[in-house]
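Contributing new records

If you add data, match the layout below exactly. Sequence lines come first and carry their own label; structure lines follow with theirs. Keep one chain per record. Anything else will be rejected by the validation script.
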Amino acid sequence: MAEHGAHLTAASIYEDRPSIFEVVAQDSLMSAVRPALQHVAKVLSESNPGRYGFLWRWFDEIYALLDLHLQHHFLSRCSASFAENFYSLKRVVMSYGGSKPRQRRSVTAGLPRRPHWKSLCLLVLVPYLRTKLEALVSRLREEDEYSIHPPSSAWKRFYRAFLAAYPFVNLAWEGWFLVQQLCYVLGKSRHHSPMLMLAGVQLVRLTAEDVRALEKAAAAVSRSPQPAGSLKRQVQSAAKKALGGLAFSLSTGLSVGVFFLQFLEWWYSSENQESIKSLTALPTPPPPVHLDCRAGSPLLPKLKTICPLCRKIRANDTALSTSGFVFCYRCAYNYVKQHQRCPITGYATELQHLVKLYTPEN
């Protein structure tokens, strides 16, 4: 029995095929990078909302652009994404039948044009769209729960059906990935992920020749002379070097900080939060001293029962967990949804930071 199950954890019967642990580890690498960088952007925006607030408001777009440049660089230079190259893997193009890989190119030549752009879209565009879709669903559920913007009768059935169907669509999507991984473990598939299958590529280990080719390419780039010619060619060369330097800086920083990022992922995991709270319990902090002094920022009313936004007696009291100030629920919801910050302090704030307050009177 042990002999029959040994292939599940041992190396694949194909000499160059990575094990399930290698492919799952490279998949989880980039998923650990995003929340760590998002936390850094949040800390910066809270420390100086005027200068770094845009990092929090446009984090998804900024991260997608950086990820696009990084993945394009590695697909062109190493025939692999950043995470795949980190684990010494590369992508090879499959034949039409999918049973055998095509004649393999040099690892430094990159992927052919069509698989390259398909891989790039699946690596960058699909995660970006999924993040936006999840944010949209969360916002629609929030609006539907509190009836902030009730849909019209013509769209109400579609609106409700979309919210009801999304969990099942998401379950089918995750189940597709799980089934593909099981098939890969059992040796029934050459792809552990549907994304590789859609891109028409498969993952294999780097060979000794690939490693030597990558070292030669890196050495050639470092000692390449400055091209002489027209101004246009020099500008193109300078721009190419600048983009290459940016990609190299990103990859080097992520490579050095990969263990730190994994530590942050563990530190902020839900399983670890209870023990962290017990270790880092502190007295109740004083009210925030930083107030947003920009033009148009509301001032605190003298009467404590007045909402700072509408200047009326508060209805449905709601506090912002990022600053502690209390507003009307509708006022706070609309302001945070539009500006993504606290109207008094300027701290970066999301709709999930709204906390409804219940008193004996209501």
